[in-house]
């Protein structure tokens, strides 16, 4: 027999996931079709071929990534739902909706600036490793396995690494290369919304990991988080490595800077997560650490 | 290797699922926390015990149902995603979000009128049969099996039967018993939004079935739809049967009337579906039949 949560008890309104869910219903409903890309179309023509390729490479990775994670978050929603965590499940429905919307946003932008080429070849080996192998494997496992270990691995890979390190590094690129040069105002306004949505996603992942660490003190899950991130490090190296020797890219980004930024992000995430051990679930539920960036 | 849709091609903006997705982004973002239940609380006190029980029985079934289907739609999103149907997947992310929101809506209403009892015992055997056994089985199968037959069975059970027949009959009850008597204005305003969301859900299910029938003419899928509905009929009988002999319920609903309404709904759905055979996918994509109620 199925267990029903909502026929038995009220929603826990003090819980962090419910809080994130409420924020998502307010801020996560922006609509990509409302964005005006008129100036972006003009800006696109101003870039030389090398610069266009540099932008397109970032775009291809983002759009493919958003499409991939829309698929990959599904087993996590299933896992949370099987556990009867109604507040978490409610929040994750907005998370999924937002991922699809992000893919739509990038797709509409490419259409508006007139790029009709197949960009699949711009997905690099490091990227393929993460999105074709690592992520589907660690997320797909949740369909059968809702153990704390499986859920920790999933949240670290998806929320902390893919969103908290890689996507954040992508936003940093867009800021450094485009926003600073006053290029693509429509795109930049959309990316602000994407970044805010992702702030909630990372907040959720951080909360979930903290919850699991706190509820299972005997499992040494923080050590597992560290180990998992260690395993992901080579992928981060592959992803941020440039193919060329030039010290500065066509858009003026210093090589090595994005890796530096990525590592700083990673360190910040680890510091937050290291504080979870020994805390009660109530303390974690009521924390606002995870809401820092929302 | 994963197949990426969005790095290769533009969104098909003429497709019905994209159309539904756009509508959902406009109309499916209403927020249950914005509803004022002040008068509803007063109205609740006006009902006698028998009437309260009649309302609560409907509520328990709705809230449990919304919670259940939030879980059960996940394998369908997975199936559609595995097929690379990006427009369908995008739409279904809004569908999932809406189901969670409906469960929240019913939960907030119960909290506001001050009902704190465990309502699980009000879930009837017919209900348990459908939501504990039939739906999870037919939907769960989609995790492994994305055949046209499996998808047809899922869409018929979930969209045509649970949403198109049962939920619609529930709205009919709320209208007959509550709205007509000018009771529960907050609830009724919310249920209007729920019903509109569900109109899109049923529209999607109808489209999906039509698509599958049209793409697989050799499989006699319309016959399968009819057969599946035949199998579900006993559950419909169990669900609409009254426990008592009284001809009129405490809220003035004539026994037999809801069964009559349910059967009318079912017939209307079948008529629409019977038209799909022999049509091309383009004809179905461009139809507005499925949008009738949105």
From TrEMBL, chains A, B:
<protein>
    <submittedName>
        <fullName>R2-like ligand binding oxidase</fullName>
        <ecNumber>1.-.-.-</ecNumber>
    </submittedName>
</protein>
<dbReference type="GO" id="GO:0009263">
    <property type="term" value="P:deoxyribonucleotide biosynthetic process"/>
</dbReference>
<dbReference type="InterPro" id="IPR012348">
    <property type="entry name" value="RNR-like"/>
</dbReference>
<dbReference type="GO" id="GO:0016491">
    <property type="term" value="F:oxidoreductase activity"/>
</dbReference>
<dbReference type="Pfam" id="PF00268">
    <property type="entry name" value="Ribonuc_red_sm"/>
</dbReference>
<keyword id="KW-0560">Oxidoreductase</keyword>
<dbReference type="InterPro" id="IPR000358">
    <property type="entry name" value="RNR_small_fam"/>
</dbReference>
<dbReference type="InterPro" id="IPR009078">
    <property type="entry name" value="Ferritin-like_SF"/>
</dbReference>
């Amino acid at each position: 027999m199925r267990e029903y949560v909502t026929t038995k008890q009220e929603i826990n309104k003090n819980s962090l996931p419910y809080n994130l869910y409420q924020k998502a219903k307010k801020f996560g409903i922006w609509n990509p079709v409302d964005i005006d890309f008129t100036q972006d179309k003009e800006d696109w023509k101003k870039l030389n071929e090398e610069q266009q390729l540099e932008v397109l490479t970032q775009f291809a990775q983002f759009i493919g990534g958003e499409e991939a994670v829309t698929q990959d978050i599904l087993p996590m929603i299933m896992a949370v739902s099987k556990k009867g965590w109604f507040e978490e499940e409610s929040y994750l429905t907005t998370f999924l909706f937002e991922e699809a919307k992000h893919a739509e946003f990038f797709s509409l932008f490419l259409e508006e600036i007139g790029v009709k080429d197949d960009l699949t070849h711009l997905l690099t080996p490091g990227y393929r490793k993460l999105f074709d192998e690592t992520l589907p494997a660690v997320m797909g496992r949740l369909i059968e396995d809702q153990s704390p270990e499986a859920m920790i691995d999933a949240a670290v890979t998806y929320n902390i690494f893919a969103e908290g390190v890689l996507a954040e590094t992508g936003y940093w690129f867009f800021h450094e290369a485009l926003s600073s040069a006053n290029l693509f105002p429509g795109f930049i306004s959309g990316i602000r919304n994407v970044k805010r949505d992702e702030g909630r996603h990372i907040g959720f992942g951080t909360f979930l990991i903290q919850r699991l660490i706190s509820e299972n003190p005997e499992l040494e899950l923080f050590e597992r988080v560290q180990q998992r991130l260690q395993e992901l490090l080579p992928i981060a190296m592959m992803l941020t490595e440039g193919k060329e020797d030039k010290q500065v890219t066509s858009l003026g980004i210093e090589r090595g800077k994005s890796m530096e930024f990525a590592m700083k992000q990673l360190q910040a995430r680890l510091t937050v997560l290291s504080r979870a051990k020994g805390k009660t679930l109530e303390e974690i539920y009521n924390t606002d650490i995870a809401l820092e960036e929302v």
